[in-house]
């Protein structure tokens, strides 16, 4: 499994979201408090962020543990942003170990992360992959289950689906055939779409100023709210909309 987080709000140093809080994503790499599967997220990390005037985010990803990269703490101390998505990784067996598999994945203005696993990977994924055109399969960022999930989401986004619908339909398509864990995060820098399907997800809204959606709270502020499992979330700086996800047919 993994831990991930998305932030929209006032421009702040990335460190204010990822490293400075007492239970930040940085600390969750070795000491997550609410992770249901796995214990240490040391197989890579990444952060994507948006700069003023540029709709395409930058990404910084590594295959090493987040605490083993001194350049990262330097970077996040000085770079400021009003929107980001970041993750620390606990790899799925059979997945490529290099940084290409570290979230966030990206295309155009989109950033994406998958916290979960496709059981039986890679053999279990053949039917899912059949949904994609050959050129989409060849464009996979990495040989891992999360990259395939991202390709399925992106396939729907390109077809014109709204972000929340793209996530919901992808979860439904996978869950019909696999007992997968599918906590997904997607942002374009203006809104956050997310799903809970097998692990924890929390949100904290300061209306008009900021919203954070994360695998677990990065501090003990009582404003954090946990989402029920099998839930779809759409968040902006002003509001949060929550909808139950349909169970797959028996």
Automatic annotation (TrEMBL):
Catalyzes the hydrolysis of the gamma-glutamyl amide bond of hercynyl-gamma-L-glutamyl-L-cysteine sulfoxide to produce hercynylcysteine sulfoxide, a step in the biosynthesis pathway of ergothioneine. Pfam families: GATase_4. Residues 2-250 form the Glutamine amidotransferase type-2 domain. InterPro entries: EgtC, EgtC-like, EgtC_Actinobacteria, Gamma-glu_amide_hydrolase, GATase_2_dom, Ntn_hydrolases_N. Its EC number is 3.5.1.118. It catalyses: gamma-L-glutamyl-hercynylcysteine S-oxide + H2O = S-(hercyn-2-yl)-L-cysteine S-oxide + L-glutamate. This is Gamma-glutamyl-hercynylcysteine sulfoxide hydrolase. Keywords: Glutamine amidotransferase, Hydrolase. Pathway: Amino-acid biosynthesis; ergothioneine biosynthesis. It comes from Streptomyces humicola. It is an enzyme of class 3 (hydrolase).
